[in-house]
């Protein structure tokens, strides 16, 4: 289990050391170099951080939500200034749902390190996780609630969680100012 988000601004205790910065620079260089051998369109898309649309778990969750009367946008950008799209977006409740693939987002139960080019893939997945955390932070800073669901989760249970959070946010928005919206982080299961 990993938290849905990390603080946007690292505390002084966690400030990147020169060594950590050098590691990140190295990691980025490795990814950039390795990207050049990724020739298939699908691989390139994934590496650019584009999320695959209409995956099986996503369709299953959307169908439960729809059956239960929820209306939402699909593959939409919650924040105009942020080039990240969420899989399911409830605009008026300001809830953005991401259904994360177990491999690409490093699920602790199902992520299996690749055998070939293992350094490349480990770095790539670490950068994806970092990017997810950054997306969560940006959303929270702008009054949104990010919900992260693992692709392995039960669609009915995931939909229950989403509905509960969307409804509680909608109710809170009718009665209180923005800072009272529930923004408690939700966790992967
Ligand atoms: Zn998983």
Approximate strand percentage: 5-15%
Our Rg estimate from Cα atoms comes to: 18 Å
User: What top-tier CATH class of the largest domain fits best?
Assistant: Alpha Beta
Distinct helical segment count: 5
Termini gap = 6 Å
Low-confidence stretches: 1-7, 10-15
Integer tally of domains: 2
CATH architecture of the largest domain: 3-Layer(aba) Sandwich
Explained architecture:
It is a single chain. The chain has 189 residues and is an alpha+beta fold. The chain folds into 2 domains: 4-49, no CATH class; 56-175, Endonuclease, Chain A. It has 5 helices and 4 strands. The protein has helices spanning 18-35, 41-47, 56-67, 118-141, 155-175, and strands spanning 73-76, 86-90, 95-100, 145-150. A 4-stranded mixed sheet has the order 1-2-3-4, with helices on both faces. Strand 2 and strand 3 form a beta hairpin. The longest helix has 24 residues, at 118-141. The radius of gyration is 18 Å and the shape is globular. The N and C termini lie close together (6 Å). Residues 1-7 and 10-15 have low confidence and may be disordered. Zinc ion binds next to loops. Residues 102, 107, 109-110, 150, 152 line the site of zinc ion.
């Amino acid at each position: 289990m990993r938290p849905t988000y990390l603080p946007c601004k690292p505390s002084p205790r966690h400030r990147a050391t020169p060594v950590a910065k050098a590691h990140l620079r190295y990691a980025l260089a490795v990814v950039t170099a390795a990207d050049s051998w990724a020739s298939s369109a699908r691989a390139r898309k994934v590496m650019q951080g584009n999320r695959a649309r209409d995956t099986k778990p996503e369709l299953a969750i959307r169908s439960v939500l729809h059956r239960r009367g929820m209306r939402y946008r699909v593959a939409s950008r919650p924040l105009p200034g942020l080039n990240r799209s969420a899989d399911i977006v409830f605009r008026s409740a300001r809830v953005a749902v991401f259904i994360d693939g177990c491999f690409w987002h490093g699920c602790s139960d199902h992520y299996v390190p690749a055998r070939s080019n293992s350094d490349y893939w480990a770095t790539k997945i670490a950068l994806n996780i970092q990017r997810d955390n950054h997306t969560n932070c940006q959303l929270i800073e702008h009054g949104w609630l990010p919900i992260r669901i693992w692709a392995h989760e039960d669609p009915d249970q995931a939909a229950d969680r989403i509905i509960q959070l969307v409804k509680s946010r909608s109710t809170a928005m009718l009665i209180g100012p923005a800072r009272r919206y529930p923004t408690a982080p939700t966790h992967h299961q």
